[in-house]
Amino acid sequence: MLDEQIPEWGIQHRGEKDANHRNNSAFAMTWSIIDGSGVRRSRLQFRYHALRPECPTISLLFQDNLVCRVDFVSPEECKFNPPWARRLGCPATVCGPHEHSWDDNQEHLQRGGPWELPCRRPIPPNLRRLNQVLPWLAEKVNLTLPEGWREFDVAPPSDLFAGR
């Protein structure tokens, strides 16, 4: 279950700079997940990158390991799936918003591949905001949302990075 307390958004700084010498920072929020024993081993991390604020991500981490991610990218942005993804029913190329699920990538990790989730699937076209994707993702990963989750949203990226 997600913690009842909805966390605040904040700036997450990274040390590296882009080609224009701007900080590689993001607007981020981390929401703790409490398991059936009351232990916090997992979390959802939401990020808007300062250089691409129109493309947020949601990551599910278990003990600091990425196990699922949803990437909001423009419909024109296309990525190739690894060849083995075809036998899972995944398209060879995915354009636009997509997910990297544990189910699709678990075998890759068990075979000793690097800890990354290279296989992706498009997300339903009606899911284009964080607060729309959250219940869909929660259902997929068997995560209970707290009562106040509907208040969860984020200001438009232009507001988040004003003055940055």
Question: In a few lines, what is going on in this structure?
Answer:
With 164 residues, this protein is α+β, with helices and mostly antiparallel strands.
Considering the chains and any ligands shown, give keywords for the structure.
single chain, 164 residues, alpha+beta, seven-stranded antiparallel β-sheet, two-stranded antiparallel ribbon
Describe this protein's structure.
It is a single chain. The protein is of the alpha+beta class. The protein has a domain at 10-73 and 99-116 and 128-151. It contains 3 helices and 9 strands. The model is unreliable at 17-21 (pLDDT under 50).
- As a whole number of angstroms, the C-alpha radius of gyration is 16 Å
The general outline is globular
Number of strands: 9
* Biggest beta-sheet profile: 7 strands, antiparallel
- Taking pLDDT < 50 over at least 5 consecutive residues as the criterion, the unreliable ranges are 17-21
The assigned structural class equals alpha+beta
Task: Give, in spatial order, the strands making up the sheet with the most strands.
Answer: 1-2-3-4-5-8-9
- Order of helix and strand elements from N to C terminus: EEEEEEEEHEHH
Question: What distance lies between the first and last C-alpha atoms, to the nearest angstrom?
Answer: 34 Å
Mean of residue pLDDT values: 85
The portion of residues assigned to helices is 10-25%
Query: What's the oligomerization state?
Result: single chain
Number of helices: 3
